[in-house]
Amino acid sequence: MKVLVLNGPNLARLDIRDSKYYGDLNWEQLKELIADGARNLGFDADIRQSDDEATIVGWLHEAADQNLPVIINPAAFTHYSIAIHDAAEMVKSPLIEVHLSNPMSREEFRHTSVISGVANGTIAGFGPNSYILALNALKSLIS
Ligand code: DQA
Description:
5-stranded parallel sheet; alpha/beta; 17% strand
């Protein structure tokens, strides 16, 4: 089964982001880890990243139209994008929010997620393993 794994701004530049929060994998390595983890669980992960809000909204419309499950790390958009909230709300298949870091243990502006309320659940703070945990959660949601 196909799963869309959507990633927001700056996640393709993990090579120069703070490894204290985001770990030591670069974007290519993270993609590989997610693709392998998905394959092991019987999923075909379509892994995408964009710095552009409209592009992510379009991908969520695609998920809604095609009834595709979604794992999404909206990155900074998590904290303020009502457009992504509204688009995520249209997705009727399971949708899981993930974060590499634990936003609740960081600056106060990261304590709000406008996405959590329209996600089946949120997994945060486990580094790249957050995605693997989300894939496992997805597996149990759909079986
Ligand atoms: C993030 C957390 C966000 O607060 C931040 O803006 C990101 C990445 C994470 O994966 O930990 O870009 O979503």
